[in-house]
Amino acid sequence: MAKVLRVDRLGKKYGGRWIFRGLTFELGLGDRLVILGRNGSGKSTLLRTIAGLTQRNEGSVVLPEGDPRHTLGLSALEQSVYAQLTVEEHLEMTAELRGCPARIDELLEKIDLAYARGVLASQLSTGMKARLKIGMAIQANPMVLLLDEPGAGLDEDGRNLVSRITEEQAERGCLIVATNDPLERRLANLELQLAG
Amino acid sequence: MNSSWRVEILAIFRKEWRIEMRSLSGLVTAFLFSVVTVYAISFAALNTHIPPTVVSGMLWVALLFSAASSLTRTFLIEEELGTADLLRLVARPHAVFWGKALFNIFQCIVTSVLVTILFLGFTSTQVIIPWLFGVSLIAGCLSLAGAVTLCGAIASQASNRSMLAAAIAVPLLLPLVALGVSGMRVSLGEGSLSGGGSGAAIGLIGYAVATLATGPYIFAAVWKS
Lengths: 196, 225
Prior knowledge:
- The complex is a heterodimer.
- Chain A has six helices and eight strands, in the order βββαβαβαααβαββ.
- By secondary structure, chain A is α/β, with parallel strands linked by helices.
- Chain A has one domain (3-193): P-loop containing nucleotide triphosphate hydrolases (Rossmann fold), CATH 3.40.50.
- In chain A, the strands form two sheets. Chain A has a five-stranded parallel sheet with strand order 5-6-7-3-8, with helices on both faces.
- In chain A, a hairpin with a 2-residue loop joins strand 1 and strand 2 (17-28).
- Chain B has one domain (3-223).
- Chain B has eight helices and no strands.
- In chain B, helix 6 runs antiparallel to helix 7 (161-187).
- The interface between A and B is medium-sized, with 27 and 26 residues.
């Protein structure tokens, strides 16, 4: 199976304490990994480290060849959107910055936000913001998709949306989901437990 | 600049523009600083002649405070609000720097034109060397915007970023203010071109080029660290 993502002896520490160390795994096409662990165990930090948003202390992360703006997508709970921009403007901006097709109508349909395309992000509910972040994450059809607590704030339709997104991602590349929700284990075919 | 860079830089500029037009926080703050400064000086110097040195100094104080209001908005607020990660994932650092610098230049020029009209009108000051006045103002705006963007960029990754940005801004902006006041003072009729006016203009242009040329590289180095 073609390897999409390789994490080799990855380590991250804060203030002298190792959050995780020596993490090694490979994900191939169709792999869906769920990262489990109690609060503070480093699930979000691991996703941020893989995405390059947090500096690692040791080890390496090998992403698919190409521009990471196209090959990697991340939707995280702590990530914010611009309160003064509309849903449509977010998607337009991220497409222009990535240099990829905006696919606004298609994405709005997919994340079920077509009715709110002109609404400012400040007026969106938590669940709607989560959908928007997922939309931005999958806009460039990334090979690697990282979802941090994807179900948080989402209703049943939203959770079904996450299921559909993960199915599609498995056909395109690989997926890593960090979660505390036991229900989200069903999204994965691989599990990684962080001890913290 | 190829079309990709242009599209990316304009995307950042458009984002800043939309946010500013909907919140008006930067422009209103700059406008208030300008009006209050002009009003205070005009009131203090009622029926008296204000020497060009004082006028140029006060004009630059107004410009400086207006520009300083951009300091937090440029990069610090992106970190505070958590939107910086979104930009890191989708944008190249040079595009982010240039988009934000362009918006700061735009805002600085709008503010400086407003401040200048108010100042010259209320203090009845005459511009003796218009080209030098124009160069001092435009190059001053470019330099101010470049320096403020650079300070925000450098400090954006620090834990106490607001304090650090202000601390970096002081040594960066002091020589700029000195150059700006020198150039503008001569343009208003005090001193001579050969006695520092031309040198100040060249210095301001050099300062603008230096901050805007090195800024993107410094920013790229700290953006993902």
